[in-house]
Structure formats: C-alpha cells, structure tokens
Amino acid sequence: MEQLFSYIISFGASVMMPIIFTIIGLCIGMKFGKALKSGLFVGVGFVGLGIVTALLTDNFQNPLKAIEDIFSLNLSVFDMGWPAAASVAYNTAVGALIIPICLGINFLMLITKTTRTVNIDLWNYWHYAFIGAVVYFLTGESLTWGYFAAIICYIITLVMADITADKFQSYYNLPGISIPQPFCQSFAPFTWIINWVLDKIPGFNRLDIDAEGLKKKFGVLGEPIVLGVIVGALIAAVAHVGDFSNFAGFMDKLHETQPNATTTDGVMKIVKDILFLGVTMGAVMELIPRITKLFIDGLMPISDKTKELVDKKFHGKKVHIGMSPALVIGHPTTLVCTLLLIPTYIVIAVFLPGNQFLPLASLAGLFYLFPIVLPYTKGNVVKTFIVGLVALTIGLWFITDMAPDFTRAANQVYAATQDKAAHVPDGFMAGSMDFASSLFGYCIYAAVKYIKWIGAGILVVITALMMYFNRRAIIRDERKNK
Predict the structure, then answer these.
(1) The model's pTM
(2) Does residue 78 sit in helix, strand or coil?
(3) Contacts of 424 (CB under 8 A, 6+ apart)
(4) pLDDT in tens, 168-222
(5) From residue 339, how far is each of 209, 293, 396, 429 by CA, in Å?
(6) Does residue 350 register a pLDDT over 70?
(7) CA terminus-to-terminus distance, the chain
(8) Rounded to an integer, what distance in angstroms lies between the CA atom of residue 334 and that of residue 387?
(9) Cα–Cα dist 295/298, whole Å
(10) How many Å apart are CA 13 and CA 18, to the nearest integer?
(11) pLDDT averaged over the chain?
(12) Phi, psi angles (nearest 5°) of residue 348
C-alpha cells in the first residue's frame, strides 16, 4: 500500500485531481463529459498555481540566500516546503489508508449529526496523514498512535469547518461550501481572539481598510500588482546591499561569466535583477486571482451536484460540501496581506529568539493562511495582517520544535523510497510552514510527545466536547428550520 500510494502521489495534484474529481463526478451522477471537464479545470488550476508559486519560490531563492549571507545567519532548519510534508505523509503506513479511514469517519459523523461537512477535498488529506506520520515515527513506528493523531486532527477540522461555514459562505458568496483544511482552520482561533482584542481598543474598531479602500486611498499604489512590484524590488535591493558595499567584489564575480564587463554593465545587472524580481512578484499577485477562477469553474459543478445528491439522501437537511481553499485565495485582501507578510515574515524569522527556520519554499503557502480569517475580519487589511503576523510568529517556534521529528520521518521516507522531495540537505533539519506551523497539528504532536497518555486523554476530551456541542448546534438548527 505504501508503494502504491507513493506511485499515485508521484503524479502530483495536477494529474490526481482530474482523475479524482472525474470519478467523483461520475459517482454522483454527472455525465462523463461534464465530470471530465470539471476535473480538468481543477487539474489545470493546479498546474497554473504550481507555475505561479514556482515563480515566487525559484526567483526568491537566491535573493533570500544573499540576505542570509549578508546578515551572517546560521539557521539550522531547512525550508522543505509542502512537497516534503506531503511525501512524508503519504509514503508511510499511516498515509496508505488515510483516505478510506477518514471517509469512513466522515460518514459516521454525518449519520450521528456531529458534522454537516462532506469532505471531498481528497488531495488535502495529506495534512492529516502528515501529523499522523510524524507521530508514527515519534512513537517508534506505532500505527496506533499515528492513526490516533491523524483521526483527532480530522475530526477537529470537520467540526471547525461547520463552525466557520456560515461566515465563510456569506463573505465569499459560496452557499453550501465549507473548508475542511486543517492549515486554514487552525488560524480561526487566532482570528477570534485577536479580532476581539482589537475591537476593544478605542478607535481601532473604526479603522476599516479593505483592499478596495486601499485602492481608493492610495490610487494605483494600492493595487496588488503594483504593491507586488514594489515589495519584490525592495527585497531584491536588500539582497544586493552587499554588492553595493563591495562593488569591486561584485565585479570580480561578474567577470567570471562576463570577462569584458564594465562598471556600467555591473550597475545595469543589479538594476535588472531588482526590476525583474519586482515584476515577477507583481505577476504572481495578478495571476493568482485569474487561476483561482479555474478552480471555481471546475469545483462548483461538482459541488452543486454533490449538494443535490446529499439533499436527497438527507431529505433536504443542511449539508456543507468540503472544498479546497484554493477557491478563494485570489481575494484582493489575501493578496495584499500575503504581499506585506512576505518581507515581514522573513525579518521576524531572522530576529525571533529560539527560531531556527528561515522561510523560503513555504512562502508560496502564505496565500492559504487567510481563507477563514477574512470572513471574521470582514476583509480589514490591518486586522488580517495582524492575525497573520501573530499566527506565523508563533508558528516559527512550532516548526523549530517539530524539526527533529520531521527530520527523522523525512530521512526514513527518503531511505525507503528515494523520493527527492523528502531529502534533507546535509547539516540541516527539515521544516516547513505548510502544516508544521499549524496550531492543530502542533498541539496534537506536542500533546503526544510531551505528556503522551495524559495528552492523548486531553485530546480525546476536547474532540468529544467539540463533537457534542456541534451535534447540539446541528439539532437545534434543524428544529428551528422545521
């Protein structure tokens, strides 16, 4: 099963999603042509998203390494990005059966009225498998502990998807949709607390600046594409600080590739690099919303048909269709806050005491931080930015603490499969913002690692209480609707 899943996952989301959603479409009664078209739209969306995020990570790799050298940073946790986490997730005994087990749990929760969400976001099941896999290796390759961690994470996420569904649907105008993705949902508690605190500050509750307001206030400078150009150019300029201060050394390096280069050529090279990175960042900000439309075109017919089928089976009772957060990552406030967080996140990572992680490959995952945050901050740029900043800062400690066990898991997966995504560079430990910095994932990991049986008991009690109160809310809502 591990080898089979390893082979299937090696196709990547761009191939797997058309297959999965075409099969789902056929199973729920869609015609083959319509199901295939929906699946292909989703697949093309993942291809486009992969290209755009690669623009971000590939072109920022050298500038960020230059910044690391300039400030003599010595951070020992290497940013592996989400591919490493997904590889660890699915290339273990836990990942081999995570999809059927979680689907079975989802069905049981639906019939016991402890959730309303039908989670068809199958690709993102790797999040549950990841925390299960890390706990699996942490506990001496115990399948029981691995599945325990994955299942606890899954149940909590489904309940959270229900809790946030009404706000999500109203804000994005996506009726019947919820987001059962644990990375997104783990930012909801931060949002509730920080939003409440900020509203208590005199005058702050009247500070309402959304992305559209930003455009009106700053004109063209408030456009995400222009902000992208400015931020990208600034990062490139900082990366060239060393070149400006030691221009002779820069020219010596340039002469290795261009023996006849002049001083003017050197200056033009630096200017070109700055402008190129600026335009690249602007392109990312502009292309993300266009690509998310492909997800909407592909997923909404599946969602509508699934909702129609579920309504019949559940006699018209309210049910949410769990979808990928990729549906909404193109929102203007998401783009603006992501843009502002990229340089801020890097600076905090450099100076935060106790942190050993410098974000690089994970920067592309920042877009997924905000889908559940915006409905509660009502798109307020300032509030949303503060929520992201606090959550990511705390997440850096989560990543650093989890790094030794993430590294152990990645090394064992690489030794067994030779999957390059799981290869940790010599002298480093493995880290990734994608779910390793998640509140839910880390709390489950820490509970098992530090207080094992007591931690497991606490997790069971919290999960049971969440299911109980969610069931009460569902029954109360059903009675009101009658």
Answers:
(1) 0.83
(2) strand
(3) 78, 80, 407, 410, 411, 414, 430
(4) 999 999 888 999 999 999 999 999 999 999 888 887 766 777 666 666 666 666 6
(5) 16, 20, 18, 27
(6) yes
(7) 46
(8) 12
(9) 5
(10) 8
(11) 84
(12) -65, -40
